[in-house]
Batch of 3 targets.
Target 1
Amino acid sequence: MTKSFVLKKFKVDKLRLNADKNQLIEDGKKCAKETPIDEITQYHPVKRDAVEMIKTQEATLIPELLSLRHQRMMENAFTFLRGTAGIMEYDILHGSKESHIPVMICGDAHLNNFGFFASPERQLLFGLNDFDETRVGSWENDLKRLMVSAKLISEINGYDAEDTRKILEKTAKSYEDGIEYANNLNLLDRHYLSYNIKDLLEIAKDDEQMVKVLNKIAKKAPHQNSDKVVKKFTEEKDGKVQFKENPPRARRMSQKSYDKILEAFEQYLKNLSPDMQVFLSNFKVTDIIRYSVGVGSFGTRCYLVLLKGKDDTNLVLQIKEALPSKYDLLKLTVEEAEKQSFEEGKRVITGQKILQTFFDPFLGYTKTKERNYYVRQFRDMKDSIDSTKLDKESFAAYARLCSFILAVAHYQSPTAPMIYGYLKESKKFSKKMADWAETYSKQVHEDYDAFAKYLRGEE
């Protein structure tokens, strides 16, 4: 295993290795000897200023949204983690060793970035559902972020230290199980693999609370569609249906900005597959508004586009700014990041298509002169499980499920048999990963406290 696997840019050809499965497994075993699990699960605190790092990141965001962004981030240590992916990337890069086994990763695989979404056949599926930070990278970085989120949410939920430790170790073990499961599937079975709501109900049939949560989602999610968005988010004004303004979160734009986004939308249509181009020729854009979402993404440039079909069908799409991944911002010069910036939307949707298997048919990318975007349906059968409202047993099951699904998603990369080989040579893997999560969660708390002090003006 050589350092040629260290990846600085988004290149999917890094995943196309000229080696068969058995050779890749052997390469993974060699990697485990060169950089053992003991080394990649050690965290050495990095000398850096978390407050300054956050301020630097926020310099590119919309200024009037920063106060709301801070409110969302500072609700608790977990929401702070959600809003500071760049800090954790920096710490992993400088405070830990990496396996350098390259797969397509989510880049931000905390527990709230799993959820429900619709397949093109209108099945309600479950899996990773946020890909702003997706890239080719070391597999364990995703698992570390998932496990730190499990640790922080366990604290919020009031679980004691012993129970939390068990949850963390079983979460790591579930990733191992997922890798072994995926390794035993043939290529086609793995490629078509998905988890729908019926699968989850069967898995959770003995968990009364989880069954209750899943049944509620199964009933609610199909009604999350463009018609509901139009009913909630629009009003009729001067004979025209348009989005309601709710500053600063939802704000109308100048005509110049409106025309720029409309032009980007036309470019998006050209980038779509011919069948989707034909389908969308049935619609015309009737309104656009800037509308901010999320925690980590709050403050970026996001827009809702209202389309009306020839038969009055409603369709609402989201145009979301695609910034360079936090990893690339840490590794590249400003000039390199700028050159790469117009590929960011394509990066996001490529990662989603690899990791999610079944994906939104409206998924696409576009750009303006200054910025890059990706496009998707807005709230189409999307829902999630609020892990802060689960009892201990249900939360433990949920964390294990997400970890298992993460492993299977990683195994969509041709290089993934190397993970299997690595884990076969890694003793006490679950214990070591739990150690890392417990150690790094203390760092998150320190950064949270430092930023809270800054916001109070006590710096």
Note: The first helix runs from residue 21 to 34.
Target 2
Amino acid sequence: MKTVAFICFSLLAMSFLSGCAGVILGGAAATGVAVAEERSVGTIVDDATIATQIRGKIFDKSEPLFTDTATTVNDGIVLITGQVPTPDDRIELARIAWSVQGVKQVHNRTTVKGQGENPNFASDALITTKLKYQLLADSKIMNINYSVETVGKVVYLMGVAQNQAELDRVEAHAKEISGVRSIVSYVQLKSALYKNKTS
């Protein structure tokens, strides 16, 4: 059963990666997305590959860990969210993430089940959906450069902000959503990102 499930996961991952290839070879719409994204097409593919490898290794370790956690990768920076059974599982997730080539940083924001507030997945999904919609509707925000995860009513942001003013707008939108307890930002400023890449 586990093998069948992993095959399904692998097919989904390959289909995602082939979708990225479509961005490279595709028409005007795909090109527009690639131009709008602050990450290069190569970086987008690298991030997808890193995420797929991490998820595959987590699945090999434990199917429940795979099911109860999520992994987001942006410019080699990994964010892991969700709930795990024991503190040792948190350590193992970090170890797995760091074992994948190309990983620059790992932010392990998983919590141990029974410690603290249990997340309400429907409520978290609603917060994420509302925030993504607000970012999309705000013409002063390049929403394509942001990833949003919500766990236990805590909003986690990743991506690249054009400037501090844009990031402030993103965080302000998150604060306006009912039920949000706090915001954790791993967003990089565009100026700092390019400075690091050229230095």
Note: The first strand starts at residue 69 and ends at 74.
Target 3
Amino acid sequence: MKRASIKDIARIAGVSVATVSYVLNKKEGSRISDTTRKKIFEVAETINYTPNKIAKSLKMSKSKLLGLILADISNDFYSSIARCIEDEAMKLGYTLLIGSSDETPEKFKKLTELFSEQQVDGMIVAPVVNSDDAINKLIKEEYPIVTIDRYLKNVNIPGVVINNTEISEYICSYLTEKKFEEIIYVGYDTKLPHLLDRQEGFDKRISSAVNYKKVLTGLHNIAEEVYEGLENNLDLSKKTALYFSSNKLGIAGLRYLLKHRIKVPEDVSVIAFDETEAYRLFPTEISFVQQPLMDMAKEAVRLIDSQINNYINDGEKVIFPAQLMAKDSVR
């Protein structure tokens, strides 16, 4: 007869393997509710669970593993911040497990389940649209979790973001003062709050004296949709500025300009979000919005470590200021 395992208990009780491990190993300071504890002990008794003493001795201490779920690790922004988080986590003795959700809630959910099975001590995540249920499940299981770069409006957990609204307001004012006849905002047609904050900040400050256009793309066919949007909206007879609200949009836009031999800043001015090596390949130095990656990483690791060790879960949000790095691409 097969020996009952903590995976069996977790499946029957409807909680994570990590939660069962916390309860059965009687770890001090855990935030797991009495109701959940009682249910786990009842299931364990019902299926005659007998702990493996060797495995138990190995799991009495923390795993010193952290899960990091990003939208796309191939994106320069996320690969850079992952490296910063890894460096900071290692200083505290943690090893990082990293996964990309590819902007899909199904893959995001699978990664949370996988990391939970690996018994990570906590997770740092960049939420995707419709990932609320997966995150709420972790919260219900009282799992240490922190958001990075992004947040969800209806989920109150600790997180690290930048001042998306304010920096876009500043960029808009900066461009308006340059007396452009036309400004084109290139962003996303999305429900992600941090990206909507960027768009709303720009909308808030745009002058009625400027011809204002928007090119909004999906998250998956960026290059094609940016090409089409610029083809239909860019009027080189006017003094025009382009604001790309992410590095992926910026790279796609710059490729379009190169392909059509449109000069920057002679024919059009450009500001893009985030620093990326791809900008360095362009003939003109591109003005960009710089995010304080190291500061964000340090704070995310601090927040997750605080939860793991002290079980703090007060929904603390830490907002860092981004800044415009003005180069030669705006005239």
Note: The chain has a mean pLDDT of 90.
